[in-house]
Design brief:
Elements: H1 3-13, H2 26-36, H3 46-68, E1 74-78, H4 84-92, E2 97-102, H5 105-115, E3 119-122, E4 134-140, H6 149-162, E5 163-173, H7 178-188, H8 192-195, H9 206-215, E6 218-224, E7 236-243
Parallel strand pairs: 1-2, 1-4, 2-3, 4-5
Antiparallel strand pairs: 5-7, 6-7
Helix pairs in contact: 2-4
Length: 255
């Protein structure tokens, strides 16, 4: 791991687990968990900001269930953070088995508390084991923090092999728009160069993902990041990696 990776790791380890009240409704808890994951930026209308992420998650769940239905028995998340995604799955599929990994001890504690899962580990994304396998193996807003393309490749290959039905990568920084996104961030974030000194972002191409997926006889469905409140979204993409003979019902065209 290079210096940038170590700095990102230190940032995630500084996060604190904030336990929400038992009477908190799903949306309120979703907001608190997203904040714990680093989505705690100052915005004009916080309710609208988090509502857009909540609605986006519902669309994401719809895309997955259109493909593999409600037969999802297990979900594993690489870089699970506070456990917000697993929490949302658990609310809809109470019997689903949850597991995950994250750099941050407090975040792992949060995810375990929310899901009751036992297969959680505080470790790097490249340290996940190939067994047990899970129906869905996912990583959201994680790959951009990896310090090299080689590291990202190892993680992606492990995720594909660990998945029994579907692998999902969310909010991948699109290599095609690398310069545009960096220019945008410099213009819109005060003291960007000082604040993010030594903190690199990793950009990936769709072709790179497709080439790796094809080695496992998989195909990839790409979707845009459909969230008007998330300004980085227009420079990113999501992808669903599935068996080539099981592409029906995904709702978006494959690229």
């Amino acid at each position: 791991m290079d210096a940038s990776g170590n700095k990102w790791k230190a940032i995630w380890n500084s996060k604190e687990f904030v336990e929400t009240a038992d009477n908190t409704n799903e949306f309120e808890r979703f907001c608190e968990l997203k904040k714990a994951n680093g989505f705690d930026v100052a915005v004009g209308d916080e309710q609208s900001y988090f509502r857009s992420f909540y609605d986006e998650w519902l669309r994401f769940f719809g895309e997955i269930t259109k493909h593999i239905g409600d037969s999802i028995k297990s979900v594993y998340e690489v870089g699970c953070g506070s456990g917000v995604n697993l929490y949302m799955f658990k609310n809809r599929l109470p019997l689903v088995k949850c597991g995950g990994c994250d750099y941050s001890v407090p975040m792992i504690k949060s995810a375990v508390s929310l899901t009751g899962g036992e297969d959680f580990k505080c470790c790097g994304a490249d340290e996940i084991t190939l067994t047990p396998r899970y129906d869905v193996v996912m990583a959201e807003s994680v790959f951009q923090y990896f310090d090299s393309i080689d590291y990202a490749e190892k993680v992606l290959r492990n995720m594909i092999q660990k998945s029994a039905k579907l692998t999902y990568l969310g909010e991948i920084h699109n290599k095609e728009f690398e310069e545009e996104l960096m220019d945008f961030r410099r213009k819109t974030i005060t003291d960007y160069e000082e604040r993010y000194r030594g903190l690199k972002k990793l950009f990936l191409s769709k072709e790179w993902i497709m080439n790796i997926a094809s080695e496992y006889d998989k195909t990839v469905v790409f979707t845009g990041v459909d969230n008007p409140e998330y300004l980085n979204g227009k420079y990113e993409f999501n992808c669903y990696i599935v068996d080539k003979n099981d592409i029906r019902g995904m709702g978006k065209c494959k690229h």
